[in-house]
Specification:
Layout (H helix, E strand, L loop, with lengths): L8 H13 L4 E11 L17 E10 L18 E3 L3 H9 L3 E3 L12 H6 L4 E9 L2 E10 L7 H48 L8 H13 L6 E4 L6 H10 L8 E5 L8 H6 E2 L11 E2 L1 H4 L4 E5 L6 H13 L1 E2 L8 E2 L3 E6 L3 H6 L5 H7 L2 E4 L10 H16 L8 H9 L5 H15 L2 H11 L22 H18 L10 H5 L3 H10 L18 H4 L1
Parallel strand pairs: 7-14, 7-15, 8-11, 11-14
Antiparallel strand pairs: 1-2, 1-6, 2-3, 4-5, 5-6, 9-10, 12-13
Helix pairs in contact: 1-4, 12-14, 14-16
């Protein structure tokens, strides 16, 4: 058996039982492994169990019925799925580390659980060997045969059991190494996104009373383990606050993982959050770690938390309360230790009333709420933000730095900025690219002033509206598409997507993004086109 080359425990076990189960006169071969078990406190055999939290779990099975030709490959749901250590013959083998052979089975023995199966399948003998590697009992292999074992069969089975045990240990090391490599790859991908964001922002900029209050709240809760719920309109800097909370926490040297909940297809939510095992669903070609496992020891930032499907919110609540989760397609319970920060631009109380958000999850998330002010509420910070962004984008684009006049700054302060800081950032980038502040201000004139404010953009100083060239119009259209994507966090489809905001079809928007070269600029974690398959994401 080519077991030593297998990199997954499941493959080792499957190959072992199939090779032995197809041998002549072999009826059924099964392998149980010793694993932690949280059912021990309620187990009916608790009094006889010597494992105290560790039991034998059926992991592989192979055999063929001589009555109807069925293959016995089922593991879960079997009456023999779980054995306490010391219970019955299989449990005794694991407890004592001693092999067991029953040379002649009549079917009337007291330990036989299903005498009819023994008789109908012609079972004559039974043999079991412990799986031991470097002094540790990993499990038990059991063989039911339709003939009496020959002399030397137990010694041969001992050799096979040792080979299987070492192959299991070897595969577990491979799995640990692969998991660590996968975790590092995912952490590096998120780190690249963080570095990209860090180049655009440097701390929380502003001296308004609203921003000073935000800084004070971050200082109060940053060093704690409390869950934080950040609420505010799109573009107000919720992610920046989450980064600052992480930087001031004890977890600052561990991963900061951001999840844009609005960008995850609904059928992939559970897999993205908790991970999946190979074969769990179509397209699951490998085991994959979820965000909760990748962020273990660090901070998990759930952006647009209101977009999490209602059916998944209960599982999320369990992870927050107990720190436990299961991968899709796996029964094993895994533990995680993360600090949770959530953000939303929705009114969660209204979502609770509409029954789209669980009230118990809401109260778990808002241990410490932070409400972000809109840019309209802190217009005195606009000159500071504008000068900061001018410096950032002049350096990025190799342009000479410049400043705006007092009148031009006043015009910017009069604008409503419905997209908040994100819209201001995009506006300044356009202004730097064109090198013509007045032309950029003319663009704002198309959008109109804030409600109740005078339109200071059009002819406020006797200036007639500028005529734009075709190239300038294309540049303005490109900038407008980018602004729509930034405002919607690169969400294309749905009522809250950029396509709906622009009043065009999603396919039309994607076509224009490719034409303007914006499609390739999307963050690595974002899927814009529904035709991008799951395997592409892997």
């Amino acid at each position: 058996m080519d077991l030593a080359q297998r990199r997954a425990v499941e493959d080792v076990l499957s190959l072992a039982v199939k090779c032995l189960g197809t041998a002549r006169d072999s009826a059924l071969v099964r392998i149980w492994l010793v694993e932690p078990d949280n059912s021990c406190p309620t187990c009916a055999e608790q009094s006889t169990c010597a494992g105290r939290g560790r039991c034998l779990h059926l992991k592989a099975s192979y055999g063929t019925s001589r009555t109807d030709g069925r293959h016995w490959t089922k593991t879960e749901g079997s009456g023999f799925y779980r054995f306490p250590l010391g219970s019955r013959k299989v449990g005794s083998i694991a407890l004592t580390n001693k092999p067991l052979e029953v040379a002649c089975i009549s079917g009337s023995e007291a330990w036989i659980a299903d005498p009819d199966w023994i008789k109908s399948e012609g079972i004559v003998s039974f043999a079991g060997q412990p799986l031991i590697c470097r002094g540790e009992t990993l499990g038990v292999i059991a063989v039911f045969s339709r003939c009496v074992f020959e002399q030397g069969s137990m010694e041969l089975l001992r050799m096979v059991a040792d080979h299987i045990a070492y192959s299991i240990a070897n595969a577990r090391l491979f799995e640990i190494a692969d998991a660590l490599n996968q975790q590092k790859e995912l952490e590096n991908a998120h780190l690249r996104e963080e570095l990209y964001e860090a180049r655009k922002f440097t701390g929380i900029i502003g001296e308004s009373s609203a921003i000073k209050e935000i800084r004070e709240q971050i200082h109060i809760v940053g060093g704690t383990e409390a869950t934080v719920l950040i609420q505010g309109d799109s573009g107000t800097g919720k992610e920046l606050v989450a980064h600052e909370l992480h930087k001031q926490s004890k977890r600052k040297n561990n991963p900061f993982i951001k999840i844009n909940c609005a960008a995850i297809p609904q059928h992939l939510f559970e897999s993205e959050f908790f991970g999946h095992v190979k074969g769990a669903f179509t397209g699951a070609i490998n085991d994959r770690m979820g965000f909760f496992q990748v962020a273990n020891g660090g901070t998990l930032f759930l952006d647009e938390v209101a977009e999490i499907p209602l059916e998944l919110q209960g599982k999320l609540l369990r992870v927050i309360q107990d720190g436990e989760f299961r991968r899709v397609g796996e029964e094993k319970i895994r533990c995680t230790n993360v600090r949770l920060i959530a953000a939303t631009n929705k009114n969660l109380k209204e979502a609770i009333q509409r029954r789209t958000f669980r009230d118990d999850l809401y109260y778990r998330l808002q241990v410490f709420p932070i409400v972000m002010p809109s840019l309209k509420e802190r217009e005195e910070d606009i000159p500071l933000l504008v000068r900061h962004f001018i410096g950032v984008f002049c350096k990025k684009n190799g342009r000479s730095t410049f400043d705006l006049s007092g009148e031009q700054m006043h015009r910017l302060q009069q604008y409503d900025w419905p997209g908040n800081i994100r819209e201001l950032q995009n506006f300044v980038e356009r202004m730097v690219i064109t090198g013509r502040p007045e032309q950029a201000l003319d663009y704002l004139a198309i959008c109109g002033p804030a409600e109740g404010k005078e339109n200071v953009f059009v002819q406020s100083a006797g200036i007639t509206q500028r005529i734009l060239t075709d190239a300038q119009m294309r540049q303005m259209e490109k900038a407008n598409l980018k602004a729509a994507l930034e405002r919607t966090n690169w969400l294309v489809y749905g009522n809250r997507g950029a396509a709906a905001l622009l009043g065009i079809k999603p396919t039309t928007l994607i076509s224009r993004l490719k034409r303007f070269g914006l499609y390739a600029l999307r963050p690595a974690s974002i899927v814009l086109d529904e035709q991008e398959s799951f395997s592409d994401r892997e």
